[in-house]
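## retry 2 of 3
previous attempt timed out at serialization; input unchanged, resubmitting
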Amino acid sequence: MTTRLKLKPGSKGTKKLVQQYGEALVCVRYRYDAVSQKRIKTAEIIIEEKSWTPPPPKLSATELVPVRIEFSETKLKQMAKEAGGRWDPNARVWFISYGKVKGTILEKHILLDAKTK
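## retry succeeded, writing output
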């Protein structure tokens, strides 16, 4: 089964569902089943809404995180130096504060199972 079309409420093909569900309608999908040769129209609706407090971040901005950078990746090494990173020759990783790494290419290189210093 493949989905070919995802429509926002109010667009052509959603009018009746908007009348039926109102603000609870999130989207309408048209799915196609090649085996049974049928088009299926589905609606995503909100059935419950309540307050939620997101969990605190797992890492604080000042916490040092280990970042693995290969020897040949000179651009990443330069970024680590500019972010105030420290090279640890024993662990063979850079230690950089998470606030400087978050949202950069370096974030993908964080070692999750290594111990921080």
